[in-house]
Each structure stands twice: as structure tokens, then as C-alpha cells.
Amino acid sequence: MKNYKHLLGSFLMALAVVNQSYSQHIQELSELSSLVKPRMRVIIDNDFGGDPDGLFQLAHHLMSPSVEIKGIVASHLYEQGFGGPGTSEYAKEQAMKVLKLLKLEESIPVYSYENQSMTDAETPLDSDGVQAIITEAMRTDTDLPLYVVCGGSLTNVASAYLLEPKIADKLTLIWIGGPEYNDLATPPPGYTTLEYNLGIDIKAAQVVFNQSDLKLWQVPRDAYRQPIMSDAELLTRVKGKGALGDHLYEVMKNAFGKLSKWNVPVGEVYIYGDNPLVLLTALQSSFEADPSSSFYTLKQAPTINDAGVYEVNLQGRNIRVYQTIDNRLLFEDFYAKLELLDQGEN
Known about the structure:
Blueprint: H1 2-35, E1 40-46, H2 53-62, E2 67-74, H3 88-101, E3 110-111, H4 128-137, E4 146-150, H5 155-163, E5 172-176, H6 196-200, H7 202-211, E6 215-219, H8 221-224, E7 228-230, H9 231-237, H10 242-261, E8 269-271, H11 276-279, E9 295-300, E10 303-304, E11 310-311, E12 318-324, H12 327-345
Parallel strand pairs: 1-2, 1-4, 2-3, 4-5, 5-6, 6-12
Antiparallel strand pairs: 7-8, 9-12, 10-11
Helix pairs in contact: 1-12, 2-3, 4-5, 5-7, 10-12
């Protein structure tokens, strides 16, 4: 009994030290965060009602103090995409759940719109989200650079450009989408020629690549397939990490259930292809700010034809095409922020 009491006392003392350590971490994080000033403005445009990686990207961005989120555009995808309705309004509902868990639902505007893709490369589809992109880009009262990050179609940024071409030199567009370039990467087994995000709105992609002079950083399929989280990591480093971690876990559990029902064997991992949007913005290097731990090639922007396939364009402007992604920084920062948020809640 004496040994038991001694062990129990030692355990409680150790637990007190651990709790004190966590409290210290939270205090230190708060102190560090107070020293971090936003280095950029960000507008997020993503199809939060489809592949659940977009919700992980949204949560990660919202937990990052170096970016100032100016608005969120909930974009459409394919009809019945990923087993949901595929609508912009449904995507907005999913995004709002994340904002509410972070108590940000009153702080950041979320826009939805009519569920359409462009019918041609000359006619924009105007909406509140499109106007928000234009308004933010045309501001003259701030020196913070603006990034528009897209994890789905290019409908909204293409429409914004057509309505106000002057935005081209006032923002950087980061897009998760497009197939591999033949000289840079080999397509995956069983690939489709028409890449998923590009196929949502081919005309919008034609505006951005073929017509515009928008500053573009592209993360094509071979690069966005690199950020992979295992199920074991999901269980040990996301589930149980506060209300947000539990919500994201349930979202993934639901997705795995759908994939199993559809007889799509995904093994014990999942691709979180939208998360490079956080890496390339919030996690830029401290000095000479740039995504210095991920690597890209400068290429002339290809022409995108009506089938959604690249064609060589010797007059194309230079764009960044990312080839390798710093997955260590991307995922470890995400896990750490979830952990610290959880400890702050407790």
C-alpha cells in the first residue's frame, strides 16, 4: 500500500508538472503570437463541400497568425461531387462549421453564389465573392500583399479578372490544380487526362492561363498528391485535439465511409492536396519571405485547350509550377497548432 501511495504521489506530481508545462506552452504561444504580425492578406476560395481536404486547409489557415483572412468564397464543384450536392451554398455551410468552432463566424465574411461554371471565356459570372476579390485587390490603403488561394475551380478569380483586369498586378493567385507537365513529372497510375479541379470549369482556367497576365503559382497534380497523412496520424494527432480536431476527424471518417461504400480502396492514408495553400502563404520563410522550403520551376504558361489539356505557348508569361512540397513543415505546424488550441481550450 505504501508503494502504491508513493507511486500515486509521484504520478500526480508528474501530472502537475506536465499540466504546468502545457500552461507554459500556451502562455508562450500567446506571447509569440502577439509578436507575429500579418505579412499578407489572403482570400480563400475553395469547394468545402467536396473532398474534405479543403476543410483541413481552411482550419489551418484560420489558426495561422501571419495571415489576415479577408474573405472566404465557398465554391461549387461537380453536381453530386463527393456525394454531396456540389453547391456553393452547401460549401458555405461546411465552412461555417469550422469558423464557428474557432469563434470566427462574425469576423470573416463567407460568400456563396449561383452554382455555375463559365459558359465561355469572355463572360464573367458576377457575385458577392467576385466583387470581394476585386475590392480587396484594388485597395490603396495597405501595403500588405494579397494572395488569392484556390483549391477548386478558377471560376471566381477568372470572373474577377474579366470584370476588372487591373487586379492582375495587384495579387498573387495560388491554384491547386492542373495535370502534370510532361517534362516535369509522370502521371499516376490510372490517371485521367482532364485533372479534377481544372475540369470543374475549363473556361475559367482558359481565362487565367490563356488570356490573363495574373501572377500565378500552380500546384499541379504531381505536387498536390505529395501531402499525405496516415490514418494513424489522423487518430493520434487530430482526433481528440479539441472540438476542431474532433470535427475534422468526423469529417474524414464520413469520407472514408463514403469511399468504402463506393468500393474505392484508399488504403491507410489520404491525400490532403489543398494544404499547400497554407504552406505557400502563412509558412513562408522569416527573411526574404518566400516558400523557401518547397521547390518550383518557372515555366511559360501553357495554353489550355477545350479538352482541358496543355498546349505549348511560346508567348506565355512565366508562372511558378511547384514540384516538391515541404510536408514536414506543413503537417507538423498543423498538428502543433491543433494541440496548442486544444490545450488553450482546456
